[in-house]
Specification:
- The chain is of the alpha+beta class and 198 residues long.
- It is built from seven helices and three strands.
- A three-stranded mixed sheet has the order 2-1-3, covered by helices on one side.
- β1, α6 and β2 (167-172) form a beta-alpha-beta unit.
- The radius of gyration is 20 Å and the shape is globular.
- It starts with 26 loop residues before the first helix and ends in a 6-residue tail after the last strand.
- The mean pLDDT is 80.
Length: 198
């Protein structure tokens, strides 16, 4: 069939050269690379590995990969979620049969979580990384898609939860992420700043 629009490629391919050593085909090779990197970084202190999963990822396989790294501790944010029954009850006014438009929901991310479980995890994290917090080496970063004003509100919410940790950046997520997630995403990340490095 002749392409009506001569400048349109229905099957585009973008070759990225020079990164062949940064792509892994299976969990074993990815785990081996993460182990090597973790060993290198252990000299600088604790190592924190974060897996950010989007819908469709087989979480059990990723948790198995995390366990194979010999982690001292694995934190699973989903363990702090409210039960499905609680969430459905709290959000029933926002859930409609319309899969596209629905109703704009003004609830915040914390409304999805059990406050007691979340507070327990927060204390656990702060305890494990208290030396970094004391030295001002633990930094938080906020990211978003679409709406900068909502992102600023999200930053304030995160800062109120972690008042002793500086939020050093607020940035839009890259297109390579947002093409999977769509609009309305809010994210948080943490990093360890080395001595003498801002």
């Amino acid at each position: 069939m002749r392409n009506k629009y001569h400048n349109y490629d229905p099957h585009p391919v973008k070759k990225i050269e020079g990164h062949n050593s940064e792509i892994w085909e299976n969990y074993d090779s990815a785990a081996e690379e993460l182990r090597k990197e973790a060993e290198k970084r252990k000299k600088q202190g604790r190592v924190l590995v974060v897996f950010d999963l989007y819908p469709g990822v087989r979480k059990e396989e990723v948790l198995k990969l995390a366990a194979s790294l010999g982690a001292d501790h694995i934190l699973d944010m989903e363990s702090c979620r409210k039960s499905e029954e609680e969430r459905l009850k709290e959000f029933e006014d926002y859930i409609t049969d319309d899969r596209v438009f629905g109703i704009l929901c003004h609830k915040k991310l914390k409304d999805f979580y059990d406050s007691e479980k979340l507070e327990a995890m927060k204390k656990d994290v702060e305890g494990r990384f208290s030396d970094y917090v004391t030295k001002g080496q633990l930094k938080l970063h906020v990211a978003y898609t679409t709406d900068e004003e909502t992102a600023r509100q999200w930053k304030e919410e995160v800062q109120s939860m972690f008042p002793d940790i500086a939020i050093s950046r607020i940035d839009p997520l890259s297109f390579s992420v947002t093409c999977h997630t769509g609009p309305g995403v809010l994210a948080i990340a943490a990093s360890h700043a080395l001595d003498g490095v801002e």
